[in-house]
Design a protein that fits this description.
Blueprint: E1 13-14, E2 32-42, E3 45-52, E4 55-59, E5 66-74, E6 77-86, E7 89-96, E8 99-103, E9 109-118, E10 121-129, E11 134-139, E12 142-146, E13 152-161, E14 164-173, E15 176-183, E16 186-190, E17 197-205, E18 208-215, E19 218-223, E20 226-231, E21 234-242, E22 245-254, E23 257-264, E24 267-273, E25 276-283, E26 286-295, E27 300-307, E28 310-314, E29 320-321, E30 327-331
Antiparallel strand pairs: 1-25, 2-3, 2-29, 2-30, 3-4, 5-6, 6-7, 7-8, 9-10, 10-11, 11-12, 13-14, 14-15, 15-16, 17-18, 18-19, 19-20, 21-22, 22-23, 23-24, 25-26, 26-27, 27-28
Length: about 325
C-alpha cells in the first residue's frame, strides 16, 4: 500500500453529560433537523451511514467498505463525501441521498475529505496521486484544481464564499510541512515552514478567512493568515464563525484525564470529560457538537449529539468511527 504522509496526528476531542441514560435517548430538537454522517466499522470494513434526528436515513453495504468524512445538506438533498477501500486502494466517492453521485476511476489512490454545495454545483476537496498525494478540488466530479506538483499535499476542508473557493490543508516539501490555504487553486497564505504545521478546517465570514490547525503541535487559529490565538496543550480540528464569534472544539489532557472543550473566541464555553467530540456547528444562538463516548461494558463507541453543553440524544448499538465535519443542522 502506498503511504501518504499525514504530518500531525489528529487527536479526537471529548464531551460528556451527567444526565441519566434514559433521559438522553431519543431526544430531538423540535425546531431543527440534525444530520450526522460517519462510518461504522464491522470486522475491519466500513459502512458509510447518515442519521437524521438519530434515525438511520441511509447506509451503504458493509461489503463495499465505504467511509464518510463530510456532509452537506442543500434543500432536500443530502450530500456526503469519503472513499471506498478496495484492497490497498482508496477511491474518492460522493453520494447524494444515499446513491453514488460520482467517484474517481480507481486507477490511482484518491480520497474525498470535505464537501460543499453552492447552487447546483458540488465541490469536493481531498487528494489523489500515485507515489505522493496532491491536494485536489473537484467540481461536479471533474478536476478543478490540483496542488503544486513538487510536494506532497492534501486538502482537508473546503468553503465557497462569493463564488470563490477556499480550501485548507498542508503541503510537505523539502522536509517542511506547511499549513496551507488556497483560494481558487492558488496559494492564499501558508506558514513559513520553520515548524511542522497543518490546517484542518476553514470558514469564511464577512470576507475574513478563519482556519484552525496545528503548528509546532500547538492548536492554532489563524485569521487571514495571521495567528489570531493559540490553544496550548490541546488539539482542535473544527471551526465555525457566527457573527463576530469564533467557535472551536478540542481536547485537553488535565490531571491525567482527557477533557473536551468548546471555545468561543479563545475562552472556554463548555468543558466536559470522557466523551469525544469531533465537529461543531452553530445555528442562531445554539452550539451543536457531534462526537462519541466509549462504552467500557460493550467495548464500542456510542455517537452523541450535544447542544449548548447538554446531550441532546445518543445513537445506541453503533460501532462508530467519526470524522470531522460530520454534523449538519438545518432549520425546519
Amino acid at each position: 500500500m502506498k503511504t501518504f504522509l499525514i504530518p500531525l496526528a489528529i487527536i479526537l476531542i471529548t464531551l460528556v453529560s451527567c444526565q441519566k441514560e434514559d433521559d438522553r435517548k431519543n431526544r430531538t430538537d423540535d425546531n431543527r433537523t440534525i444530520y450526522l454522517a460517519g462510518t461504522e466499522i464491522f470486522d475491519y470494513r466500513g459502512m458509510a451511514i447518515v442519521w437524521k434526528n438519530g434515525e438511520v436515513l441511509y447506509q451503504t453495504k458493509k461489503a463495499d467498505n465505504n467511509h464518510i468524512h463530510s456532509i452537506y445538506v442543500a434543500g432536500n438533498d443530502v450530500y456526503t463525501a469519503g472513499y471506498e477501500k478496495q484492497g490497498s486502494l482508496f477511491i474518492a466517492k460522493v453520494w447524494k441521498n444515499g446513491e453514488v453521485l460520482y467517484q474517481t476511476d480507481g486507477t490511482i489512490f484518491s480520497e474525498a475529505r470535505a464537501i460543499y454545495v453552492s447552487g447546483t454545483d458540488v465541490y469536493t476537496a481531498g487528494y489523489e496521486g500515485k507515489d505522493i498525494g496532491k491536494a485536489i478540488v473537484w467540481k461536479n466530479g471533474k478536476v478543478l484544481y490540483r496542488g503544486d506538483w513538487r510536494g506532497n499535499s492534501q486538502a482537508w476542508s473546503i468553503c465557497v464564499y462569493n463564488n470563490d473557493i477556499y480550501t485548507a490543508g498542508f503541503e510537505y516539501l523539502n522536509s517542511k510541512c506547511k499549513a496551507m490555504v488556497w483560494k481558487n487553486g492558488s496559494v492564499m497564505y501558508q506558514t513559513d515552514g520553520t515548524e511542522q504545521a497543518s490546517a484542518y478546517s476553514i470558514y469564511v465570514s464577512n470576507n475574513d478567512v478563519y482556519t484552525v490547525g496545528e503548528e509546532e503541535s500547538i492548536s492554532t487559529i489563524w485569521k487571514n493568515g495571521e495567528v489570531l490565538y493559540r490553544l496550548t496543550d490541546t488539539s482542535a480540528e473544527s471551526i465555525v464563525v457566527s457573527g463576530n464569534d469564533v467557535y472551536t472544539a478540542g481536547t485537553t489532557f488535565k490531571d491525567n484525564k482527557k477533557v473536551s472543550h468548546i471555545w468561543k473566541n479563545g475562552t472556554i464555553l463548555y468543558e466536559k470529560e470522557n466523551v469525544n467530540s469531533l465537529s461543531v456547528f452553530v445555528v442562531g444562538n445554539d452550539v451543536y457538537a457531534a462526537g462519541y463516548k466509549y462504552d467500557e461494558d460493550s467495548k464500542r463507541n456510542i455517537p452523541i449529539i450535544w447542544k449548548n453543553g447538554e446531550v441532546l440524544y445518543l445513537i445506541e448499538n453503533s460501532y462508530f468511527n467519526l470524522s470531522t465535519g460530520n454534523i449538519f443542522v438545518v432549520n425546519n
